[in-house]
């Protein structure tokens, strides 16, 4: 058989794709993650109802059980909440917020961590010592505590109306700023190895600026582990956002995420309306678990010692 050409052909012939096909757990995780992502992104097209359109809500539809129950309604496959909102539609729209916060927080922490680690590892000396001590100090505090601290400071510093408008950005910043030390320490270690290699020394000899060497020569060679850490941190960021929203300090109630839905449903869990909190919880578990399993596979697949 002739070798396949083009980017797709090279991908299908790669060791990464071979490793992916041979892992049933990874394949299932990828399918679940894809379903969660498509359901969230395409919620306006796929959701049976718009749960946040007040004109379509009817309190007479409140607390309807799932469709397969005796009093269920096929118009609400997973039942409704106390406001008559369709739980399935609320999960799809809520997953959009959770994914948005998770992805943006990981991108933010990646940019900050890579920049700090690159500078610390390449410059060295007092700069390296200062930046790494800051990272060490932050690592002594739980990430969720840092996120709560940031949110609390912002709430105290700005009026409530302003905070409600910027709440989404505050959550993204709070989660992202709590995760950058992991990226920084990893990139610093790789940079310490790369900065003494021949191609870097040759670039210095021919007069290339230090900033250009860091960005065009060292940076591309230290990004491999960053992809793995970013994938693993995506699950953490989604879970952190759900935790903050469950505690009531996350996104505003007008834009509820999965954590907010779980918190709302928790008030009715012991009164028999279990579906209001169970189904958002299952969706959150499926999303985070699939992402974490993909991250574990990617870490092992890119580790040359395990090949």
From TrEMBL:
Transmembrane segments annotated in the record for this chain: 25-47, 99-124, 130-154, 226-249, 274-298
Q: Where in the cell is it found?
A: Cell membrane
Q: Which family does it belong to?
A: Belongs to the binding-protein-dependent transport system permease family.
Q: Which InterPro entries match?
A: BP-dependent_transpt_permease (IPR050366), MetI-like (IPR000515), MetI-like_sf (IPR035906), OppC_N (IPR025966)
This protein is called ABC transporter permease
Membrane disposition: Multi-pass membrane protein
CDD domains, A to Z: TM_PBP2 (cd06261)
Domain ABC transmembrane type-1 span(s) in chain numbering: 95-295
Give the matching Pfam families: BPD_transp_1 (PF00528), OppC_N (PF12911)
Mind listing the UniProt keywords for this protein, alphabetically?
Cell membrane, Membrane, Transmembrane, Transmembrane helix, Transport
Which coarse location class describes where this protein primarily resides?
membrane
